[in-house]
Amino acid sequence: MQMKRIVTIAVFVFLLQELVFAGPSWYARMENDRLFIGNSLVERVFEWNGGNLMTVSLADKAAGVVHNSVVLRPDAVFTETSAKGEDGTFEVDVVEEDSVRPAFLRARVCCRIGSLEVRREFRIYDDAPVLCSDIWLRGRLGAARSNAEKNHADRKNIEAAEDMDTGASTSLLDQLHFAGSHWHVKAVEFTDITDWNNNLVTERDVITYRKNRYRGNIAFVRDGISGNGYFFLKESPCSDVQLAYHGADFIAEFGHVMVTGTGLSHSDVNPREWTKAYSCVTGVYGPGELAALTALRKYQKNIRRHVPERDEMVMMNTWGDRSQDSKVNEKFCLEELEKAAALGISHFQIDDGWQSGKSPNSALAKGSFRNIWDNPLYWTPDAAKYPEGLAPVVERGKELGINIGLWYNPSVQNDFADWEKDADAIAGLYRKYGIRVFKIDGLAIPTKKAETNLRRLFDKVGQETGNAVIFNLDVTAGRRAGYHAFNEYGNIFLENRYTDWGNYYPYWTLRNLWMLSRYVPAEKIQVEFLNKWRNASKYGSDPFAPSEYSFEYLFAIAMAGQPLAWMEASNLPEEAFGIGEVVKKYRQLSGTFHDGIILPIGDEPSGCSWTGFQSICGDDTGFVLVLREASDDVSAYVKTWLPEESAVKFVPLLGNGKAFRTKTGKGGSVRFSLPSANDYVLYRYYIKK
After folding, report:
1. Residue 496 CB coordination number (10 Å)
2. Residues contacting residue 32 through CB under 8 Å, at least 6 positions apart
3. What is the CA radius of gyration of the chain?
4. Over the stretch 225-252, which tens digit does the pLDDT of each residue have?
5. Apex CA 624: angle with CA 620 and CA 627, to 5°?
6. Who contacts 154 (Cβ-Cβ below 8 Å, separation ≥6)?
7. N or C: which end of the chain has fewer CB within 10 A?
8. Measured distance CA(619)–CA(621) in Å, rounded
9. Could you give the CA distance from residue 96 to residue 305 in angstroms, rounded to a whole number?
């Protein structure tokens, strides 16, 4: 065996200490030319193959199931020649926890395949049944693998074994090949660019057969006999906007499932530096959808630690009332802060217009995002609007218990070539004013270089501020990160909706959050609620118009996410401020609510459904947020994630429900009651053991 094994003494000492004191269960070790990586929940075994790893088996330790590979072949494939690696090295270290990520074990495997160097780093967290593979390439890709997929209609009929050969596949991030003919794949595709799209999740369930291609960021693969399975999560933008995309993310053929689409073109890789491909996460789960979703969510909660003091926010951003930058100045902000405090708001974000430079969206001047840094004062407070800078607004915010946030549009020119200047500007605003929340807008990530520089920008801000800054990453337009990339930097600004244009319908917003929450942590999504009294006449007699709902109900729709008051508080009537106490009570419990695994319950929101969310906080407790839309039924059975035939006590915290005890029915169904249409209740539940 030709291998350089590099493991520092410090790591051995650390691991020994953890073993003695019952610390993390993670491990990565070589034994007899095989690499074992895992923790107490999962293990993946590889044939070393000179560092060009080949999966031998994948084990779900909790279920006591081991999936063995039918064929040994390199997992990750980037060239026509997927041979044995050369000059293989293996390193292990522990990445200590910080304010963003918990500690994890990192196992680094490097090798050379012809003129290409491959670095594959595995992240192993202690409490998740997953292994994440981060891949970098350096050198020359050589002959590019074929990305063309022949239409099945152009193939001959199958009369012999050789007729089944479909030729080489595209480059692969990972693949698993297990025995059996009854594998089911559920591919989940996501759509952002929400200024243009209002259907954000598409699911496709198939029984695998001949080689076919599927789109999506997630593939759940389940054995139809045992019910056990595994998933692949491709950490990349949505399929429509990925780099170097060739029409598919997954390829499945019977028990052989592959992850394709590296995000790299031939010109992205060079001998001078490492270039990162998209990452691929593999997780295991037992029978049932809850097991699969829990395994996925446990990993997602490790990407960025949710710290309530930093990450919880009921934010107000005044852009939703369409005044753009015409009102924004010190006087306006101070007046808005007083009213925001009465609403119970925790963060007040000044959108476009606070800065000296003028954007293309300015109502006051024909600005531009081009050549931003030709004006070195572009990202300083407009002296005419804020004669003393932002200090008076920030100080008044502190007195009222409100954090001030800002809108920011990095200079996209030349693939974010000015990323250091942007990072310095953001860090400077943090140091001078204590601004910790920045809405990042106007992103364009058309190349790998742009993606790399954008990461450098965010990482530099994190390093210079001790990770105190959080970014609201806008996914409303352009080529951006979507729902499964850049998640370590903050939360997601989901959508722009306006009563001015008649495109804000509360049940649309609820539906988008409900559908995403199955696969994306709801607590990482900013969810808007608007001033329902504005532009009521534009909706006519529409039964789903915002004015048909109570203001408190509009806020309740956003509770499972991070509520965003997309409005000017000064435009609200006095009755709107009646929700202030509800908002304050919600803020007291939101951290605990969001700490659980939040999943959708009930029926898909339609405007007339019984629907909602459940936060699973442990084996015997959690929360349910039940929403009765414009249904004629005063009570209804709602399918939950509670165990069947369980005795459960429900204690109301917010809304109009009453306390009760019950036993769950089939599918964890519970009969809930609410007195009126378009009403809600937030319960804490307790399961009696």
Report:
1. 17
2. none
3. 26
4. 999 999 999 999 999 999 999 999 999 9
5. 165
6. none
7. C
8. 6
9. 13
Supply the pLDDT for residue 5. 47
Per-residue confidence at 83, pLDDT binned at 50, 70, 90? confident
| Biggest distance spanned by C-alpha atoms of the chain | 81
State CA 441 to chain mean position distance: 17
Q: What is the dihedral of CA 42, 47, 48, 52, to 10 degrees?
A: -90
Residues 510, 568: Cα–Cα separation, whole Å: 22
Report whether 610 contacts 603 (CB < 8 A): yes
Shortest CA distance to 605 belongs to which of 551, 542, 678, 676? 678
- pLDDT tens for 136-163 read 999 998 644 444 555 544 445 544 445 4
| Backbone conformation region of residue 332, classed left if phi is above 0, alpha if psi is from -120 to 50, else beta | alpha
The span from the CA of 385 to the CA of 356, in Å, is 9
Alpha helices in 87-201 (DSSP H): none
Q: What is the DSSP letter of 69?
A: B
Secondary-structure breakdown of the chain: helix, strand, coil percentages, each rounded to the nearest 5: 25, 30, 40
* Cα-based angle 668, 673, 675 (whole degrees, multiple of 5): 160
Q: Are 343 and 583 in contact (CB under 8 A)?
A: yes
The residue among 196, 205, 85, 74 whose CA lies nearest residue 133 is 74
For the ranges 74-83, 322-331, 383-392, 563-572, the lowest mean pLDDT is seen at 74-83
| pLDDT more than 90, % of the chain | 89
Q: Among 90, 145, 78, which Cα is nearest to 114's?
A: 78
Q: Where are the beta strands (DSSP E) in 617-678?
A: 621-628, 635-638, 647-655, 660-663, 670-673
State how far the Cα of 564 lies from the Cα of 348, in Å rounded to an integer. 10
User: CB neighbours of 461 closer than 8 A, spacing ≥ 6?
Assistant: 423, 426, 427, 430, 469
Ordered strands of the 250-253 beta sheet: 172-177, 256-260, 250-253, 212-214
Q: How far is CA 420 from CA 137, 405, 417, in A?
A: 24, 21, 8
- All residues at 6 or more sequence positions from 139 whose CB lies less than 8 Å from its CB, including other chains: 112, 115, 116, 117, 269, 270, 271
Tally the C-alpha atoms within 13 A of residue 367's C-alpha that lie toward its C-beta: 20
Cα 586 from chain centroid?
Answer: 23
Look up residue 35 and give its two tokens: 């690499």
| pLDDT per position as a tens digit, 593-642 | 999 999 999 999 999 999 999 999 999 999 999 999 999 999 999 999 99
Signed CA dihedral, 137, 143, 145, 146: sign only: positive
Give mean pLDDT, residues 271-295. 97
The amino acid that residue 18 corresponds to is E
Which tokens hold the place of 624? 């349910």
Residue 31, pLDDT score: 96
Are 517 and 560 in contact by the 8 Å Cβ rule? The answer is: yes
Residue 235: its H or E element: strand 229-235
Pairing of strands 86-95, 4-7: parallel
Distance CA 28, CA 122 (A): 9
Domains (range + CATH), the chain: 4-144+167-303 (2.70.98), 310-591 (3.20.20.70), 602-688 (2.60.40)
CA 478 to each of CA 194, 438, 496, 675: distance values in angstroms, whole numbers, following the listed order: 10, 19, 14, 43
Q: Token pair 């000296």 is at which residue?
A: 356
Residue 120 contacts residue 108 (beta carbons within 8 Å): yes
pLDDT at 10 over 50: no
Does residue 34 carry a pLDDT above 80? yes
Report the amino acid identity of residue 495: E
| pLDDT, tens digit, 9 for 90 and up, residues 370-403 | 889 999 999 999 999 999 999 999 999 999 999 9
pLDDT confidence of residue 143: 47
What single-letter DSSP state applies at residue 146? P
